[in-house]
Inverse folding.
C-alpha cells in the first residue's frame, strides 16, 4: 500500500530531519510509529500526505507521490490530527463530516448516507448536530475520527490519537481503532495504546529507522527502548514491589 | 470607542453602513479568491487571538492603570490592509452581537471608525512607507527594523485613533443626539484618545517587534529584499508623507486646543439643521430609491422625520398631548411590567412542574 | 471576575440561550434579522423629545422575551457596556438644554431631561432587541441568513471560523494569564518587560495552528468552497411575523399611541 524508498527531508541543508528512509506498509496492516520527540514521526506523515516535499520516492497504492497524484492520494488517506480543534473547524459536527466528501465531489445523498452510517457505527448519532465548540475533548476526538471515516479512506494516519483523554475516552478510541479495517499508521508516545492496537512497530531515532518488526518483540525490548529515549509500556513493567 | 445604536440617527448609520459595505466589497474584490481562501484560516485564528488579546491588561509603568492592544494596526501589519479590515469587521460584529459592545445599527459606523482607519490609513499611510523606507538604515538591519516597527505602530495607533475619535464626534453631532457643542466634544475626545493611542501603539509595537525577532516573514513589508521596491520608497517620499501626517496631527491638536467652537466649525457641522442632510449627502432618497418612487419616499420621510428634528414646538396644543401622552406611557409601562411578571410566574410554574 | 472569564461565561450563556427551543427560536433567522433591524431603526428614528411616543416600543422586546421564554433580566448586565457611553453623551443634555418641556406642579421638566431619558431608552431598547436576536438565533443560522442577503461568503465564513476559534483562544489566553499571575503576585496586568512576548508567543503558536488548520482543509480536498447544513425554507409563520412586526413598528412610529390611549381616560 505504501512504499518509502530512500526518502530524505531537511528544513535547511545543514541537518536532515529524516534520512534515507525505506519501508513498506502492506494493505490492512496497523503500524505503530514510535520514537522520541523530534525523531521524525510527524515528518513522515507530512511527507506521505504531500504537505512537504523531500527527496526519494514515495508510492501510495502504486501511485508515485507527485503533484499530479496528490489529490488522488489524499483522497485515499485520512489524517486524524493531534489537536482535534484544528480538524473540526466548521460550526457543527455534521458540517465537518460533509466537508471532505462534498469537496471530493460526492452527491448530497451519498454524503448523507455516509455521515449517518459512520455515526451509527461509532455510536455517535447523538453528536450529529452538536456544535464543535461545545462538545467535550473526548467527543471531539471521536468526532474527528468520524470526519475522516466519512471520506471512506483506504488508509488512516493518526497523530497521537490517545493524548489528553481520560481513561474511558482513551479506551473508546483504542477500541474504535481496533475495529477499523483500514490500513493504519499511528504515531504516538502512548506505548500501551500502540501495544493494544498495532501488530507492527517502526522505531525511529534522529530520522533513522532503528527497529522495524513485531510490535510485542520491540515493545518488550527494554534495552532497545531505553537506548532510544523510551521505556517499557506500563503494562509490561509489572507492579512495583 | 464602540458606539451604541442610540447615538446615531438612521441616516447617519445608513451612510456609515454604506461606506463600510463599499470597503468590504472592495477588500473582498482586491483579495484574489485563491489568496483569500488560503488566508482564511490565518485570518480567523488571528482575529480570534486579537479578540482575546484585547482583553489582556497591560500595566502602564508609573500609573495604576492598564492599556490594551490596538487590533486594526496589528492585523494589517500581519495580514495586509484588506484581510486585516475584513478580520476587524468580523471582530466588531462578534463584539456587537455577543457582548453588546457597539450596536447592531452602529456596526457600520464602528467598522469605519475603528477598522477602516486602523487598517487602510494605518497601513498605506504609515506602515508600508515607513517599513519600506531607508529610515534608521545606519543602525543595522535588525535594529532599523525594530525602530521602524515602533515608529510605525505608535504613529499609526495615534493617528488612526485620532481619526476614529473625530469620526465618533462627527457622527454623534450629525445625528443631533447631544447638546454638547461640537468643539467641546472634540476637545474632550481627542486628548483622551491621544493618550490611549500612544499606549496602544507601544503595546502593539512590543508584540510586533517580538514577532519580527522570532519570525520576520510573518510581517508585511519586512525583508523586501527587492531593491527596486525599496528605491520606490525613498527617504524623501517618507519624509513628505510624515510631513503630511504631522500636519494632520497638528491640525487635530489645534482643533483640540480651541475648545470653543469657532464660526467655521459651526457653519460646517451645526448649521441649519434642515440643510445639513443635503450638505453631507445624507438624503435618504438617494439610497436606492429611483426618482419615480422618490416623491412617495419624500412624503413618507416627511411624516416619519427620519432625522430627529432639532426644533421643538412647545405650543399650547402640545401641552395637552403631553399629559395624555404621559398617562398613556404609564399604561404601556404598566402593561409591560405585567407581561414580565406574568412570564416570570409561568416560567417558575413550569420549572416547578418539571422538577 | 476578570474580563477574560467574563467573556467566556458570556459566550457560554449566549450559546445556551440560543440552543434552547421556543416559537421565537424556530422562526426563520432572516425574518428575525430583518425585524430586529427594523425595530432598531424605528427606535432610533424617534425625535429626541418624543419620550411618550417611544414608550410603546418597549412592548416588542418585552413580549418577545416572554415568547422566547427568556427572563428579561438576563440582558441587563450587558447594559453596563452600552450605558456609560450613552450616559456620557446624554447626561450633559439637562445642563445644556433648559427649554421647559412640561410643568408638573412646581417641577419644571426641561427638554434636556426628556432628551436624556429618551436617549437612554433608545440605548436600552436597541440593546434588548439585538440581545434577543442572538439569544434566539445560533451563529450559523445567522450566517445562513447573511448568505441569503448576499453578504460575501469570505465574510460569513470568516465570521464562523473566527467564532469557532474565539473559545479556543480565550482559553489559551486565560491559561497564560493565570500562569503569569501565579508567578507575579500583586501585579494587576502584564508588566512592560513582557508586553511583547506574552501575546507574541501566542501569536506565533496561533500561526502554526492556522497552518495546521489549512493543511487539514487541504487534506480533505478543499478548493475554496464550504458546505453548510441546509437551512429550512422560510415558513408562512415567519412571513406573517415579519409583516405584523414591521406594520406594528410603523404604526407606533406614525401614530401617537400613548397619547390616544391617555385621551381615553384624560379626555
Amino acid at each position: 500500500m505504501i512504499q518509502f524508498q530512500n526518502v530524505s527531508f531537511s528544513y535547511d541543508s545543514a541537518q536532515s530531519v529524516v534520512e534515507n528512509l525505506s519501508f513498506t506498509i502492506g494493505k490492512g496492516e496497523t503500524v505503530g510509529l514510535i520514537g522520541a520527540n523530534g525523531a521524525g514521526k510527524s515528518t513522515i506523515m507530512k511527507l506521505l500526505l504531500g504537505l512537504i516535499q523531500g527527496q526519494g520516492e514515495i508510492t501510495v497504492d502504486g501511485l508515485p507521490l507527485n503533484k499530479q497524484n496528490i489529490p488522488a492520494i489524499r483522497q485515499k488517506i485520512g489524517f486524524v490530527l493531534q489537536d482535534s480543534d484544528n480538524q473540526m473547524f466548521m460550526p457543527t459536527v455534521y458540517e465537518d463530516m460533509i466537508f471532505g466528501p462534498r469537496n471530493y465531489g460526492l452527491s448530497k445523498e451519498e454524503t448523507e448516507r455516509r455521515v449517518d452510517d459512520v455515526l451509527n457505527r461509532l455510536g455517535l448519532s447523538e453528536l450529529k448536530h452538536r456544535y464543535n465548540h461545545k462538545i467535550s475533548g473526548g467527543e471531539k476526538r471521536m468526532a474527528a475520527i468520524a470526519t475522516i471515516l466519512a471520506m471512506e479512506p483506504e488508509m488512516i494516519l493518526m497523530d497521537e490519537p490517545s493524548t489528553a483523554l481520560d481513561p474511558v475516552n482513551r479506551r473508546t478510541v483504542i477500541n474504535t481503532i481496533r475495529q477499523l479495517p483500514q490500513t493504519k499508521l499511528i504515531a504516538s508516545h502512548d506505548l500501551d495504546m500502540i501495544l493494544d492496537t498495532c501488530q507492527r512497530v517502526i522505531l525511529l531515532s534522529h530520522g533513522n529507522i532503528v527497529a522495524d518488526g513485531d510490535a510485542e518483540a520491540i515493545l518488550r525490548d527494554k534495552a532497545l527502548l531505553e537506548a532510544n529515549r523510551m521505556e517499557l509500556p506500563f503494562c509490561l513493567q509489572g507492579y512495583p514491589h | 470607542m464602540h458606539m451604541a445604536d442610540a447615538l446615531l440617527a438612521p441616516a447617519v448609520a445608513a451612510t456609515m453602513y454604506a461606506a463600510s459595505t463599499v470597503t468590504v466589497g472592495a477588500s473582498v474584490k482586491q483579495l484574489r479568491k485563491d489568496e483569500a481562501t488560503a488566508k482564511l484560516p490565518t485570518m480567523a485564528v488571528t482575529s480570534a487571538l486579537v479578540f482575546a488579546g484585547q482583553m489582556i491588561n497591560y500595566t502602564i509603568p508609573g500609573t495604576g492603570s492598564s492599556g490594551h492592544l490596538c487590533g486594526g494596526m496589528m492585523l494589517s501589519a500581519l495580514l495586509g490592509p484588506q484581510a486585516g479590515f475584513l478580520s476587524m469587521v468580523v471582530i466588531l460584529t462578534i463584539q456587537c452581537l455577543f457582548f453588546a459592545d457597539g450596536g447592531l445599527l452602529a456596526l457600520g459606523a464602528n467598522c469605519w471608525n475603528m477598522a477602516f482607519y486602523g487598517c487602510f490609513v494605518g497601513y498605506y499611510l504609515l506602515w508600508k512607507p515607513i517599513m519600506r523606507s531607508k529610515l534608521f538604515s545606519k543602525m543595522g538591519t535588525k535594529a532599523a527594523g525594530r525602530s521602524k516597527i515602533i515608529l510605525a505602530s505608535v504613529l499609526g495607533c495615534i493617528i488612526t485613533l485620532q481619526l476614529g475619535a473625530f469620526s465618533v464626534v462627527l457622527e454623534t453631532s450629525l445625528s443631533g443626539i447631544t447638546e454638547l457643542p461640537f468643539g467641546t466634544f472634540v476637545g474632550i475626545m481627542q486628548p483622551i484618545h491621544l493618550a490611549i493611542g500612544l499606549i496602544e501603539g507601544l503595546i502593539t509595537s512590543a508584540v510586533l517587534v517580538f514577532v519580527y525577532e522570532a519570525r520576520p516573514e510573518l510581517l508585511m513589508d519586512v525583508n523586501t529584499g527587492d531593491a527596486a521596491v525599496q528605491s520606490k520608497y525613498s527617504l524623501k517620499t517618507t519624509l513628505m508623507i510624515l510631513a503630511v501626517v504631522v500636519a494632520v496631527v497638528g491640525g487635530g491638536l489645534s482643533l483640540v486646543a480651541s475648545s470653543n467652537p469657532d464660526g467655521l466649525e459651526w457653519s460646517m457641522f451645526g448649521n441649519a439643521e434642515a440643510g445639513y442632510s443635503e450638505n453631507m449627502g445624507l438624503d435618504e432618497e438617494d439610497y436606492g430609491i429611483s426618482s419615480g418612487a422618490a416623491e412617495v419616499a419624500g412624503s413618507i420621510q416627511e411624516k416619519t422625520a427620519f432625522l430627529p428634528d432639532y426644533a421643538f414646538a412647545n405650543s399650547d396644543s402640545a401641552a395637552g398631548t403631553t399629559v395624555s401622552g404621559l398617562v398613556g406611557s404609564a399604561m404601556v409601562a404598566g402593561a409591560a411590567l405585567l407581561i414580565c411578571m406574568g412570564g416570570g410566574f409561568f416560567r417558575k410554574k413550569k420549572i416547578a412542574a418539571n422538577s | 471576575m476578570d474580563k477574560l472569564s467574563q467573556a467566556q461565561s458570556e459566550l457560554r450563556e449566549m450559546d445556551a440561550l440560543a440552543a434552547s427551543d421556543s416559537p421565537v427560536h424556530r422562526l426563520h433567522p432572516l425574518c428575525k434579522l430583518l425585524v430586529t433591524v427594523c425595530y432598531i431603526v424605528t427606535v432610533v428614528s424617534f425625535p429626541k423629545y418624543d419620550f411618550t411616543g417611544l414608550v410603546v416600543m418597549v412592548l416588542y422586546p418585552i413580549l418577545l422575551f416572554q415568547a422566547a421564554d427568556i427572563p428579561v433580566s438576563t440582558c441587563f448586565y450587558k447594559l453596563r457596556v452600552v450605558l456609560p457611553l450613552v450616559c456620557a453623551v446624554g447626561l450633559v443634555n439637562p445642563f445644556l438644554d433648559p427649554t421647559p418641556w412640561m410643568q408638573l406642579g412646581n417641577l419644571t421638566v426641561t427638554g434636556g431631561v426628556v432628551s436624556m431619558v429618551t436617549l437612554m431608552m433608545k440605548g436600552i431598547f436597541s440593546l434588548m432587541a439585538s440581545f434577543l436576536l442572538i439569544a434566539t438565533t445560533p451563529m450559523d443560522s445567522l450566517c445562513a441568513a447573511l448568505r441569503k442577503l448576499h453578504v460575501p461568503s469570505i465574510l460569513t465564513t470568516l465570521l464562523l471560523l473566527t467564532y469557532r476559534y474565539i473559545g479556543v483562544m480565550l482559553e489559551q489566553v486565560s491559561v497564560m494569564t493565570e500562569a503569569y499571575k501565579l508567578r507575579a503576585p500583586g501585579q494587576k496586568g502584564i508588566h512592560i518587560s513582557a508586553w511583547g512576548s506574552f501575546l507574541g508567543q501566542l501569536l506565533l503558536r496561533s500561526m502554526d495552528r492556522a497552518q495546521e488548520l489549512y493543511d487539514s482543509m487541504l487534506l480533505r480536498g478543499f478548493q475554496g468552497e464550504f458546505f453548510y447544513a441546509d437551512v429550512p425554507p422560510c415558513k408562512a409563520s415567519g412571513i406573517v411575523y415579519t409583516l405584523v412586526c414591521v406594520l406594528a413598528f410603523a404604526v407606533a412610529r406614525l401614530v401617537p399611541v400613548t397619547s390616544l390611549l391617555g385621551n381615553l381616560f384624560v379626555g
In short: Chain A touches chain C at residues 49, 51, 71, 74-75, 77-79, 81, 83, 85-87, 89-92, 94-95, 98-100, 102-104, 129, 131-134, 147, 151 (CB under 8 Å). The radius of gyration of chain A is 18 Å. Residues 163 and 190 of chain A are 8 Å apart (CA to CA).
